[in-house]
Specification:
CATH class of the largest domain: Alpha Beta
Oligomer: single chain
Helix content: 25-40%
Number of strands: 20
Distance between the termini: 36 Å
Strand content: 25-35%
Order of helices and strands: EEEHEEEHEEHEEHEEHEEHEEHEEHEEH
Largest sheet: 4 strands, mixed
Low-confidence stretches: 1-24
Structural class: alpha/beta
Radius of gyration: 21 Å
CATH topology of the largest domain: Histidine-containing Protein, Chain: A
């Protein structure tokens, strides 16, 4: 048995968990003890994070807070919006727990077979998951994954790969982690032709509920992918670029994507970005500054770790009206004292 901390990359986001590793099972034992904030302040902060989000389009979500425990309710159009709202709430300083009661009302229903086909194709396109013996079943727009993978990362990535598919309302991950020395669970991989790669890229973008890919075009030759077109915000740009990089057969990517963000006053964008930075528990204690010109956000200040700098950039990216983020935050290592100095 051993203790540790892990950071793993979801599709476009970074999350951190304290974990207890017991054999092949990961158990989250962390207790949240945030600094005191009134429930009214927490409600207002969570509500504002949701309202200025570039990801959540649905309106009318309700936020309540009692004893630092936040409850979300209302209705959205996709699983992605529901989970984004829950994640945004959990990032607010002072929040002890989040209960997500948001309901999902799909705009256009797909049959279970259509969702299954999309999920199977998505897993086979993913460079980390192709060839693994994963079985997909669908009931009432909820995907269930069974089979086996070689490690915990692959198990979590499988969930992340299918949860963003259009019309999916939930994912049940029943995959078993069965590590083997020779990774014998994986089947032989087939390298896609240029036409097959282009179709896979198109499907990956079209199925991601976080991205409006109607303005995106892709070209592929010898593993080199060129992405052209436009999206409505910098968050979608980053997600689209990551989607393309994760497809089997892609060697390198040239992105010419342009951001045509909704017109917002620079002062409003600046206020929202700065508010999100100031109220985020992960960034508490850091003196960060924001400037905005023509929708381009420039961040400055200092943090003590590279992942904090990247996280701050991610926070800024998710605000409505942001066309681009220039991250000039400096990473300043904390001063370390010698044993002798500590004894004194």
């Amino acid at each position: 048995m051993g203790y540790g901390k892990t950071h793993y990359i979801t599709k476009g986001r970074i999350r951190a968990y304290s974990i207890l590793l017991t054999g092949q099972q990961w158990v989250n034992k962390i207790r949240v003890k945030p600094g005191f904030r009134s429930d009214v302040d927490i409600e207002d902060a969570v509500r504002r994070h949701i309202l200025n989000s570039a990801v959540i389009e649905s309106q009318g979500l309700t936020v309540t807070c009692a004893g630092g425990k936040v409850t979300l309710s209302g209705m959205v159009d996709s699983l992605g919006e529901s989970e984004e709202a829950g994640l945004l709430a959990s990032e607010v300083r002072g929040v002890r727990d989040v209960k997500n009661n948001i309901l999902i009302k799909l705009k256009r229903k797909h049959s279970g077979q259509e969702i299954k086909n999309d999920a199977v194709a998505a897993l086979e396109r993913d460079v980390y998951l192709i060839g693994l013996p994963i079985t997909v079943t669908v009931k009432d727009t909820v995907i269930t994954l069974t089979g086996s993978v070689g490690n915990f990362y692959e198990k979590e990535r499988a969930t992340e790969e299918v949860r963003w598919i259009m019309n999916v309302s939930g994912v049940k991950n029943k995959l078993k982690v069965e590590w083997s020395k020779n990774c014998g669970v994986r089947k032989d991989e087939t390298w896609p032709s240029a036409d097959a790669l282009k179709k896979a890229l198109r499907a990956e973008l079209d199925q991601d509920s976080r991205v409006d890919a109607s303005g995106i075009t892709v070209k592929a030759a010898y593993g080199h992918v060129i992405v052209d077109g436009f999206v409505s915000d910098d968050y979608q740009k980053r997600i689209a670029e990551q989607d393309v990089r994760d497809v089997v057969g892609v060697r390198w990517v040239t992105s010419n994507l342009l951001v045509t963000a909704d017109q917002r006053e620079d002062r409003a964008v600046r206020d929202d970005v700065q508010f999100n930075l100031d109220t985020d528990f992960t960034l508490e204690g850091f003196n960060l500054h924001t400037k905005v010109k023509d929708g381009v956000v420039t961040l400055s200040g200092s943090v003590h770790a590279w992942n904090k700098k990247r996280y701050a950039g991610d926070v800024a990216t998710r605000v409505r009206g942001v066309r681009k983020v220039i991250n000039n935050i400096k990473v300043v290592r904390e001063r370390r004292h010698s044993d002798a100095a500590l004894i004194k």
